[in-house]
């Protein structure tokens, strides 16, 4: 049977509420729609669509536990018909839902669970064979997400591989200069944590040469110089980040942001903590 006027209206109202970031109202409307769809025996793909939308709303509300429940139910429906014979996705919503559940799991700091979901999405796009053959169906943003979740578990060697492949795809396919630089920055940070400091610093310097306004790398170079006792370079890089780039460096004064949101590796965070203690209000430093 066709969808009723009421069902269509409820979904339209839910989408409008979501667009204006009225998440409470959007969740209530989607819950009503879901109950109606199930009561009227609507096709499973339609039910899955509502579950996925409510999961996104709940993620935006930071209600990660219930968002994951929605994605679990949604994926259970999609598992029935969502794979082609070769194991790739029959429709885009299948891998996308794995990505969304991965992001919700990150909200609970379930890094291993997030990696599992990102890996499932990558497999549905063709997996390791697609990556090895240079087939460009894998979303490079999701490779970055997986790299970050691996790094959060201390698995920097594995994260490094994801960052490198993401950089390659951004360069060859997306031609997104900002994300190319961001992927290289992530790779440089991972290399530093792996003890490959010279290689890491070389990449950082190449990034700021190409993108002079890349605050993250100027701050990282300041920390590396400080750690080596090169206070003049540390002061110069910090001054560039804070006073010569329009975005400034205010976020980097918050160690929790650097650790939890930007996700710098522990070794650089430790240097920054020492630097922050010693820098004082004038931002000048003394030898470590």
From TrEMBL:
It comes from the Eukaryota. InterPro entries: TPR-like_helical_dom_sf, TPR_rpt, Ycf3. Pfam families: TPR_16. Keywords: Repeat, TPR repeat. SMART domains: TPR. This is Tetratricopeptide repeat protein. It comes from Eutreptiella gymnastica.
